User: Fold this.
Amino acid sequence: MPTYVAFLRAINLGANRKFPKADIVRVVEDLGFTDVETHINTGNVRFTTPMRSRAKIEKALEDAFAADRGFDVPTMVFTTAELKAIAADAAALSAEHPGLERHYVYLLKDELPKETVARITELATDAGGMVVSGRAAHALLGPGYQAGDVDPLGAAKLLGVATNRNLNVIATLADKWC
Assistant:
């Protein structure tokens, strides 16, 4: 049975969007998914399901999360092979760009049109740049990056539905679950 990793966006922010790990596991198991496991409280969940359509898996999860929580939880689903490839790309990009202040990986619901990828590439500054590969966008932020600046490149708003994790979380999840 295929194994997937889902990344939930915008949970555990403020008082109104709480979604504890135990509740995530319960909701995913209630869908009939098995081998459910979470990692830290930022919305990372691994599971197996006989379902094969990413879109159908995402919809089932999003519908179940909304019913349980009372708010929308955009969810990006990847196979373990896709996550492993994203982690390998992230490691290679970090090696190619020594001295990064931060490396965030945006996990996208959908691949971006070529025109959007070109626009994002053009937004590179002294603070860094973004590299888009499939359904992942790597924000490579150099010494000019100011901590706390959520979108120093002005590129994240072009990514569509997405969530991000830092390089360490992506590497840890790939090692742990792939």
Summary: DSSP finds five helices and eight strands in the chain.
